[in-house]
Structures are given as C-alpha cells and as structure tokens.
Amino acid sequence: MHSEQRFTEDQEEQSQLDEALSTPEDQDKKGSGAAPQDKFIGKTIAGRYEVLDLAGRGGMSVVYRAKHLLTQKIVALKLMHSHLLTDENAVRRFQQEAKAASRLQHPNAISVQDMGVTEDGQPFLTMDYLDGLPLSDVIKTWGKMDPKRCIHIFVQVCAALAHAHDQRIVHRDLKPSNVMLVRSDENPDFVKVVDFGIAKILPEAGEVLKLTATGEVFGSPLYMSPEQCMGRQLDARSDIYSMGCLMYEALTGKAPHEGNNALETMYKHTNLAAPLLADIDADPRLIQRLDHILQKCMAKVPEQRYQSMLELRNELLEVAGSAKKGSKIAAKLGMGAADKGRKFDNKLSTVSSRKLFWYVAMPLLLVLGVGASSFGYYWISTAGDPMLTDRELVLNRYMSRVKADSDIAESMEKECKTAPAVLQKSIENLSDADQNHESNLAAYSAMKRAVHSYTPQEYYYKCQRYGMYFTKNGDYTEAIEAFTTALGVSVTGGFSNRLDSAMMQALMAECLMAEGEDSKTNVRLDAKPGSLEALDWALAASKGFEDGNVTSAPYVTANLGNLLELYSARPAQLSAGIPYLEKLFRKRENAPLVDGLAFAQAAQFAEACSKNGIATITLWELDPQSYMETRIPVSSAEIAARSLRKSLTAWSQLERRRSKRAVFYNEGVILNRLGLLAEQNGDLPLSEQQFNNALEKLAEANNNKDESVAKVLFNLSEVQLKEHKFSEYYKNHSDAKRIWADTFHPRKKQSST
C-alpha cells in the first residue's frame, strides 16, 4: 500500500514538475483561466532578482522566471514552499539539489548559479532558464523518434552524466521529463539534464543516508534499476540502467516495463528481461546494435552493464558511425533468436520456485558443480566492494603549505604583544591548549578594528602575513578574507605588486580547492562585485607570474598543478588546460614537495583528456639526434604514466625525518595509480607489482589497517583473479573485505571492544 501511494504521488509530482519546466507560452496553451496573483511576482528577491512571472509549481517548490538586476539575465528561480520550512528532510533535500547541481560544470547539465534565503527565510536557488521542451513531451507528440535523432540526444545525456559521475554524483531519477531539449542555431536538440533533487553525492554517504534510509525507495518506478527497486545502495551503474529505460522509450514510444501499479512495475524490473526493440522503421542492422546496447544497459546485475557513462557514450558513437556494417538478413535472424531467448527467460521467471528448482536449477547445479560455486562466490563476495573509480587514493597534499612559517609565527606573537589592553586581557583568559592560535585570531580581529592606525602599506603587509598564517593552519575562510583585503588595499592605494598579488591569488585558489571546488568567496576589487571561483584565481595568478617574467618559483609550479586539476574536472574546457601542461613539462625541477603534487595533478588532467576523446597532446621533447627541443605528439595515456613517475621520483627525494608517514603514504598513492594504469593497459604482472609496492609503502607509513590499504587490496585481488591466481585472490580479497568492514562499521568495532 505504501509503495502504491508513493507511485501515485510520484506521478502527480512529475506532472507538476513537467509544468514547472515548460515555458510561459506552454503554460498559456493549457487554459485561459486567470490564476490568482502570486505574492512574489513583481517583487525583488535578495536584492538582486526581480520576479517576472510564475513558471510552474512542484510538490516541494515553485519556479519563477526572474531577471538579475545587474546582468539583466533571465534565470529560473526555484523557491521552496514556506509550509515545508519546518520539514527537516524537505529542507535537506532542497539543499542537496543545490549542492549537487553547483558541482556541475558541463554544457549538457543544469547548473546552479546562485543560492540564498529570502527575507521571509525561504531558501531559493537560481538556475539556467531553459526555453525548450522535455524529452517526454517530444515522445508524447511523436510516439517513436528517429533512431539517428535519438542517438544524437543520448550521446549528450551520457556526456552530462559522465561528468556528474566524475563528481561522485548519482542522479537517481533519470527519465525523459528530466532531459530538456533546447533549440539553438548549431544544435536543434541541445540537451540539458535537469532535476538533481534526489541525487546522491557519494563521498558524503553519512548525510545522504539521513535522507534516504536503507530500504526506502525514491525515484520513478518506470525507470528504476533493480537495486533501486529493492532499496539497496546505488552507484553510477544505476543511472546506466535508467538510461537504458529512457532510450527504449524514446525509440519505441513506451517504457520497457510497465505494470498496473508500482509493485508490479518494480517486479518486472527485477525479474524480467527487457523486450525486443520492435516495430521501428530503420535499418535492422542499426536496430540490432541498439538492442544489444539497451540489453547491456538494463542487465539485472550491475557488473554486467556498462561500467561508465563514457563507455556507453563511446558505444553509441561507434554505432552511429558504422550502422550499416554486416548483413540485414543476419541482423533480422539474430533479433528473432534473441527475442525467443528473452521470452523463454521471462517464462522461467514466472514458474513457481519449487518447479524451477526440480526442472531447471537442480540439473544445472549438477552439471556446473565447482564452476557454479566459484562463480556464485565471486558475485556474492564482491557485493559491497567499492567501485573501480573509488579505488584511487587521495594524496596528502597539505604537508607544508607556506614557506615562511617561522617568520610568520614570530610576527603573530609580536602582534599579540602589542595588542590593546582589552585584547591582552582576553588573551590571558585563554587556556594553554588554544592560546597560541586563538590569540593570533584575536590579534587579527583587533588589527582590523584599528585599521586607521596603520598606513595602507603597513595594513597591506599585515593582512598578507595573516593570510599566509591562516593558510598554514587550515583556516581557509580567514585566509581568503585576509588575502582579499590585502589585494583590495593594494588596488585602492595604487601600490599593487603584481608578483605578491599573483602569489596571494595562487594561495586563494589553493584555499578554495581545499574547502571544496564548489566553494566561492564574494569579493569586491576595482569596485566590481562578483563571485570568483578557484579557477578564476588560479588563472589570475598565472597571468601575474607571466607578466612578472617569473617561471621557476615553487608557487608558479604549484599554481600550474592546481590549474590542471581544476581543468580536469571540466570536460568542456580541457583543451584550455593543455598549454599549462606544456609549461609544467618544460619547467626546471623545483622542491620535491611541489613537483610531487603538481605532476600527480598533471596525471589526473592527462587521464581526463584520455577519457574525453583527447587522445594525443603535443609536448616539447628533446630530439636525441639534434639535441634540440621539438614539438612531438604524445598519447594522453603515456603523459599520465610519465607524470606519475615524475611524481613518484619527487616524493622519494623528500627528506623523511619530519614527514616520514606522509611521504611514504603519498608514494603508496602514486604506486596505486600506476597499478591501475598498468591494469588498464593490460600489463597485469606490472600492475600486480605496483600494487604490492604500494602496500609496502603504506605499511611503512603505519597505514596497514585502514581504508587506503583495503582499496589497494581490492585492486590487487582483482588483478590476481584475472591472472587466475585464485588462492592469492581469495586471501587478499577477504583481507580487503575485513578491513573495509572494520573501517565503515564503527558500531561493530565499538561492540567488539
């Protein structure tokens, strides 16, 4: 009863959301009855958005067409219903959508431009205003869509979701109504994937679990994966199943599985094979290949599907380019045989469990024997394992952030000693544990209050030193504020030092990256308000270093690495990052700490290029015959491998007395990535060797029982299984499972103690 009610509510909310996504002209066509005047229409929200008219209402929010007063840009302003402000889950879900969409930087995905709270305390967010139609409306109008047009749309959807998955975001509600088609001069079917209201951000599982407890089902039943129907944990492969359902409906005009109610529909998703693509007026060879793609997308077991949206996208592009390969007769016969096989499988699923055991399962078990047991062990034992994309380790990148550490500390102590008497009294009342840092914070606050006691130059240098101090101590918000103040004072006073400014801008970019790439800071420079992201600061720093003809300072190299990492998260802008990769490879060696991180970031960028179709990059190379540098195209995969080796060399050169554990850990991180790269290239012995080396380094770092070791053991066991080293596989995989369970089940650990 509960599931049927949820299904009904989902259908009602879907119709409301479809209405919200349509244009005002579409709204006018639905009736001539005048709606009551909305209290927000004609008002200004947060002092910068003028509400023009109502676009539509949903179950949780209302969408307005609004205009930004400064830029005059038309946006969609989504405002949460006031009666839901006391509903904690509703507020968290609204925030979840804003958080997920703000991470997205892809032309085919909706992105949040701004967020805030109205004067009445209602949360709002603004997004791109889309003047187009949802794919669901196009399907309703045409019934069936031309396969070539469908492939063009599907490829864009895959690209958007591949980017979302790279950001650890699973959509969980992919369906035709959440795919908007916007007309443009170059592309009449330009795709925007929308509505991340129930998206799951994987690294923040604790927060997501509060919204969707285990066993609770959210989504649209017509497009839900089997694991989603059963309330199990989801990953990116659940979206791939939903993508298969979406593609099937676009091609045929109907959903692949549709029951009389939600329960029947979910039963079909979990038990029945998807029906054959039929009654489509197109080349049978194209239909056969599309049918194969859909069946792989909608496999019941996630491991049997495409393992990434990028893999699915490449398959669709290949089909589009070779649709007429093979024989039409063979394609028709193959489709017929496949249809009979699926119908037989579906009949088996309707047979009672007792008959199925005696007539089918028992003979199969006797024939398969040990093979079936091993196969079953593999699927059961790998349940709950982290995905391959989650088995990379994260570098300890903040071992030493600011160079003049001792000088800054002494400066802070002097600042405290010369603080006003009232401040001295508050410092004396601090406990010994927090006196040093808290007194520095208090001194900084006192300095800001006494700004008129300093000359602009004195105030500038003090803010700069405090910014470096806060950066060193991980107070990134305070650091950004201090650097912003210093930059503003230098611009206003007319004594801006471009190299100092570039250094501070580089550190600001690094602080924003440490807080999370979606973090932003509001600044006012040259009396121009705006919101600058980490990429903007890093680019400004690079320009400042270039104008100052500074090429070899550690800050320059560190900033190049940060630029590459920032571009690697933006598939649409990867080509803009290539010049910075070339600059990094032409630089002279810096301190090992700087090179270790910068070349690891370069490897991340090169891998992103390889995944997004940039197969080769031209670099300056030394010609062994002429001993002169010349530009030579190098594969992105080779650049990734070179970068990782350079990073490993740099970490190994670090003095280990002060940061022994961190250095060994970072060496383990790089060796793990080299192992993954060797596995991708098919060199299994080298891959196994690199994983074993990574485990040795982690053991030297005393990390022999934590999440990082579990991930490397999962990678190692996977390679050993491919090499048919079954005993090693069983041992390492069981060790990885045990460590993984101990790491993520604190209640179990507490009860055992």
How many strands, which pairing sense, and closed or not: the largest β-sheet? 6 strands, antiparallel
Helix coverage percent of residues?
A: 55-70%
The residue-averaged pLDDT reads: 76
Using the alpha-carbon principal axes, give the shape. globular
Distance between the termini: 42 Å
* Order of strands in the sheet with most strands: 1-2-3-4-6-5
| Uncertain parts | 1-35, 203-217, 370-380, 400-413, 415-435, 517-531, 745-753
Put simply, the count of helices is 30
Number of strands: 15
Proportion of residues in β-strands: 5-15%
Number of domains: 4
Classify the secondary structure makeup into a structural class: alpha+beta
CATH architecture of the largest domain: Orthogonal Bundle
CATH class descriptor of the largest domain: Mainly Alpha
What is the CATH T-level topology of the largest domain? Transferase(Phosphotransferase), domain 1
Radius of gyration over C-alpha positions, nearest whole angstrom: 29 Å
In CATH terms, the superfamily of the largest domain is: Transferase(Phosphotransferase) domain 1
